[in-house]
Design brief:
elongated, nine-stranded mixed sheet, alpha+beta
């Protein structure tokens, strides 16, 4: 953030380019102890032997040091872009590109090529941010800045002051690293890329038949601010011949025309082209050429401070392929993985009506939710509840009890059942919170015991003699029990449960329903509690289960369920294992886990998780 005092100093010299350049260059050299002895361009911009200018410079440095912890190259680029007058910005479309955006584009392009012979161009270079970053990458490979300026980096801009500032910055970069040459040979030109011919201006580019990389931020100029000459020049580009012209649109066609085969274009630009009327011909241009197109969409996030623009990053290889699309928040840019990109065939999109990539947001969000960590099925054991096939017989809700018996009535008859044969059980389908567990507990008549960790049904003589009341009760309902499996199955004992599943489950649990109109995941540390008509996630790690409980009770997980699961009436969805098992729990640091545990508001949890997963517009479903 540029302070008001620094702003005052800069605005005072807005329209005197040479003075403002001298002020910034001199301040950089003094603050960073860069001594210039030979370079003629920089020496011309060093303030010396002028009392008035030196006083102004000293005041300026004081303000800079209050604003910047380190007055580095990025700060200089920022200042140079800042001092462009508002009127010039409207006409030329100049805008400062944040370094993290440039870093991402470079990491996805030239950093993947280890050759030192590559050529990099910015056809609307402004103050040279992309060229500076590219030069630094090549210099780290052992190439001198002098060689890089002469052989590797190229730039053109319609504003002469931008070319001058790019030369200044590149010269400062070299001199600060010990390359203090009298002059450097730059491939930097003042010109309008709408009619600039690189083959006429560079013999080397003519021989190589284009550039390896074109990187940049094409001009943000709307139709009402484009000068008449540029409007006329733009008509020769087929991408610019429909609707109201936005100047960035033909810059795609221009850049791709100057790329070698397999060369790569890397832009940060307006994202309206894939749906707007004036982007129709550009969409057709992409589709006809079937470019290998990687598109990172920032949606409605404002990436550029002080400028209302909706942006995206376009990485386009001059080769055949499909569109790889993702949406994300800029804070997650460097965390993007290949799994977060959706592959889209050009043939599936409408060039005429617009690429409805927003329709892919849901698909991408689900992809992120299924690829951000470990899958649920790998984290916990997800179990179905028990199924006696006659729960109304085996389960009871006592009216009263004493030390030995539970008392209840059924079909007008009073019964008592020995407590020793009963197991506590619960029905997750009707459970919404932990406080309800005790009031909703039922008791399951359990005619089984364990032998060598195997479940064994009671011998009938043992059952009838040891638990006489329970045996008598079941015997009263023997006819009803015989109806299990429509009477077509022969059980080992007439009083055996219809199924043996989930009868030996032990462990702490997250209980949840078969069907629900929202997530209800309820934690219990009762390791022996049985459950039916619902599911449970089983584990002996309380922290893990409680963390899962927070995440699975969130709107984020509910969004996932509504997309992936089977819908029922009245807004209910299935929570069956097959529908939820691929949901992933994001990789969380201990600090992030504690943050989630500390949140009390659902909105805070949802916001945290949406950012962690990198979701866009998840509330739309």
């Amino acid at each position: 953030m540029i302070s008001s005092r620094v702003t005052y100093f800069l605005k005072k010299h807005y329209y005197d380019t040479f003075k403002i350049n001298r002020l910034i260059v001199s301040a950089f050299c003094l603050i960073n102890k860069v001594e210039v002895k030979n370079n003629k361009l920089l020496l011309k911009h060093i303030i010396a032997n002028d009392y008035e200018e030196e006083n102004l410079l000293n005041e300026f440095i004081v303000e800079l040091q209050k604003t910047y912890k380190n007055f580095d190259f990025e700060a200089v680029i920022n200042l140079f872009e800042f001092v462009i007058s508002p009127k010039e910005k409207e006409v030329n479309g100049a805008i400062y590109t944040p370094k993290y955006i440039r870093d991402y584009i470079i990491s996805q392009t030239l950093e993947k090529n280890s050759s030192n012979l590559i050529t990099i161009c910015d056809i609307a270079c402004g103050c040279g941010g992309f060229l500076i970053d590219s030069a630094i990458v090549l210099h780290k490979r052992g190439v001198s800045y002098s060689e890089i300026f002469q052989n590797n980096i190229y730039g053109v801009d319609v504003a002469s002051y931008s070319i001058e500032r790019t030369k200044l910055l590149l010269s400062l970069l070299a001199v600060s690293q010990g390359e203090d040459k009298e002059t450097f040979n730059f491939n930097l030109f003042e010109g309008n890329s709408l009619d600039f011919d690189w083959f006429e201006n560079s013999e080397e580019i003519q021989k190589s038949k284009g550039f390896d990389y074109i990187l940049g931020n094409p001009p943000y100029v709307s139709a009402e601010n484009i000068d008449e000459e540029s409007k006329k020049l733009a008509t020769k580009f087929k991408t610019a011949n429909i609707g109201k012209l936005d100047l960035y649109i033909p810059f795609f066609e221009i850049a791709l025309g100057w790329l070698k085969q397999d060369g790569v274009l890397g832009y940060i630009t307006v994202n309206s082209f894939y749906r707007s009327l004036n982007g129709r011909n550009l969409r057709s241009f992409f589709s006809e050429n079937q470019y290998n197109f990687k598109l990172v969409d920032f949606g409605d996030e404002q990436v550029f401070k002080g400028r209302i623009t909706y942006t995206c990053i376009c990485l386009i290889q001059n080769d055949k392929g499909n569109i790889s699309y993702t949406n994300t928040n800029s804070t997650r840019l460097n965390k993007l993985s290949n799994s977060e990109f959706l592959q889209i065939n050009y043939n599936s999109l409408s060039d005429y009506d617009g690429w409805l990539l927003d329709d892919y947001n849901t698909t991408l969000n689900i992809k992120k939710l299924e690829n951000s960590g470990e899958k649920l099925e790998d984290i916990v054991d997800i179990k179905n509840g028990f199924a006696t096939l006659r729960n109304k017989i085996y389960l009871l809700k006592p009216n009263s009890e004493d030390e030995v018996y539970f008392y209840f009535s059924k079909n007008g008859k009073d019964y008592r059942i020995e407590k020793g044969i009963c197991r506590r059980a619960i029905k997750p389908n009707i459970l919404k919170k932990e406080e309800e567990i005790e009031e909703k507990i039922e008791y399951l008549i359990f005619p089984y015991h364990t032998d060598s960790d195997k479940l064994k049904i009671f011998d009938e003589s043992f059952f009838s003699s040891t638990f006489k009341e329970a045996y008598r009760y079941l015997e009263d309902h023997k006819q009803e029990l015989a109806k299990r499996d429509n009477g077509n199955k022969e059980y080992e004992k007439w009083y055996a449960f219809g199924r043996n599943q989930a009868l030996m489950i032990k462990g702490q649990k997250l209980l949840f329903p078969y069907l629900s109109n929202k997530p209800y995941f309820v934690y219990t540390d009762n390791e022996d509690l049985l459950f039916y008509n619902g599911y449970a996630m089983i584990d002996n790690d309380k922290e893990k289960l409680c963390l899962l409980q927070i995440i699975l009770n969130s709107d984020i997980f509910w969004y996932y369920v509504k997309v992936k699961s089977k819908p029922y009436s009245s807004g209910y969805y299935s929570f069956a294992k097959n529908y939820i098992k691929f949901f992933t729990i994001p990789n969380l640091t201990n600090k992030e886990k504690q943050t989630l545990f500390n949140y009390k508001r659902e909105a805070s949890i949802n916001k945290f998780l949406a950012k962690k997963y990198g979701l866009v517009n998840y509330n739309e479903k």
